[in-house]
Amino acid sequence: MKAKRSHSWWSYIVDMGMERKLLLVFLIIITLPLSVISVISFKSYSESIQANTVAYSEKLIDQMMDSIDDYIEDMKRISSMPAYVNDIKQNLVRSNRYYEQKQMMNSKGGGTQVAPGDFDLLLSIQRGIEGNISFINNIKRGTNSVYIFDGYGNGYYSAKDGGVRLDLEQSYKFWSEQSRDSSGEALLFGTQAYTSNLQSTRYAFTVVRKIVDGLWNPIGLIAVEANISNLENQVAELDTVTHGKSIIVDENGKVIYDSGRKLLTTDISRTHLFRQAVGNAGSFYDTVSGKERLNIYSSSAKTNWKVIISIPVDELTRGVKLTRNATIAATLIIIVLALIISIILSFALTKPLTQMIQLMKRVQNGDLDVTFRVRRRDEIGLLGHQFNRMLARIRQLIQDIYRIEEQKKEAELQALQSQINPHFIYNTLESIRMTAEINDDVEAADMISILGKLLRYSTSDLSGTTTMKQELLYVRNYVELLGCRYPGRFVLQIDVPGTLDNYSMIKLVFQPIIENAAYHGLDDTKSQMHLSITCEVTEQKLLFHIRDDGCGMEQATLDKLNDSLKHEMPPKKSINGGIGMKNVHQRIQLHYGATYGIEVFSRPGEGTDVILSLPLQVQSARE
């Protein structure tokens, strides 16, 4: 049923008038490309915007991560400064010695009170360490606090804004435990929440390093702490450019910083967002609350922190949608204009065609005396001109047909008469031969017999084929007949493999070449002329060498002959042997192709070598 409907639909289109067809074609040609171009442009533009956003965002992320890496590297360098400041190390050693002695006294049951001289010692140690901490804290802009602990957890610190951890004891235990197995390298800890002495909750990330003496014995611990406000400006700038929301996480999925500061210190390692951000960098799409997002991420090779920025797709395609709407409006306007122009053009094009159709109907009814009035020089005018010429030609052909029919009848009568001529000649030669034998003239009888064989072979259908054996037999008969005319002057040698006896080929290939050699190459200074036919079998061709030891040809004559064969120039009688070989060459190329034929080599006084090439082909079955 569906096939029938599609067939009727197609038939309806095929049977439409030319004017409607042109209108339909114009609409399809204009509407379809515009629609396809609009869709492709919108899609490619959207993909280009997203690809450029990904590339640009990755660069911004990398720049931000480089800045953060540099900041953290500065923090690590600051954490290494106590190793180069002897005053800090000496005071830490003094502090460790004091508290070691204090601990020993306590274990022996001594008093826990601080002696008057101890206040001066502790105050000296505190001023010596905290004075250097203030110097260190002023080196790096943005550093929040620097804490230095002795071996017993006693902290010395300096804070720019006055905000100091209230949980120093717990923080020291955590830092000390995490750095226990380290050998003095800096350790980075992600964002942690703490309560300051100003009774406010703050967030900071920390670089911790052991402090060792000259013998690499640990004598304390330094913690360089930076407030997350140092990341805030960079993340805000990134969000402003990309219109997205950013989040920074460590390698374990713990949030270092996020744009809304709602996920600080939380673990998002099990969320779909973190699991999709596989590898060092990349991008992926997801949907949150029914809105599609483009997520772009990049990692730091130094800290293993990862920045993930989520951009709503609607923000990316906002400009693309405006372009799409403008394109649709322009497309509709162009289609309406095209419809109006198409109606005008289709009417202008089909009107002269309608007139021509009417004239053709008159011709169909037998009226050949009509004429199309040509008013234009376009294709329709050319068609009308050719229509007029066609009618004139038809009228001329009708007259020619009558004349040809008369000539054909005359030719058929002449063909019937000429059919008896070859049989008459064969029968006449046979009667002469029998008369010669009756009169005991054996030589004349043999000559007539050979002549009859040659005549029967040569006058048969030249378009047919023969075998190699029959063709070579014809050559032998021809040379034998020459021997009757010139006794002892010609010696023929044929060296062709017997496997080629049934090789199928066209007739009269070798004999014209032998004839040219005998009549045009005969050297009167020699008592005999040796003729030979040899075969060379190559991978692609059969090469037959027809050689003679006659007078040969001059170089100019030879070049002219080969050029005539090569360029298929008309043969001239002034070229010795040109006519017969030209005939053979043309028949070979017509039958086998342009890669086969004749090539002549000759030297004056030494003879001529004619190379005849034929194709390799499957031999017929032996008789």
TrEMBL record:
PROSITE patterns listed in its UniProt record? HAMP (PS50885)
GO cellular component terms, alphabetically, are: plasma membrane
In terms of InterPro entries, this protein maps to: Bact_2-comp_sensor_kinase (IPR050640), dCache_1 (IPR033479), HAMP_dom (IPR003660), HATPase_C_sf (IPR036890), HATPase_dom (IPR003594), Sig_transdc_His_kin-like_C (IPR004358), Sig_transdc_His_kin_internal (IPR010559)
Q: Where in the cell is it found?
A: Cell membrane
> Locate the HAMP domain: which residues?
347-399
Keywords on record: Cell membrane, Kinase, Membrane, Phosphoprotein, Transferase, Transmembrane, Transmembrane helix, Two-component regulatory system
Q: What is this protein called?
A: histidine kinase
Native species: Paenibacillus graminis
Q: What is the lineage of its organism?
A: Bacteria, Bacillati, Bacillota, Bacilli, Bacillales
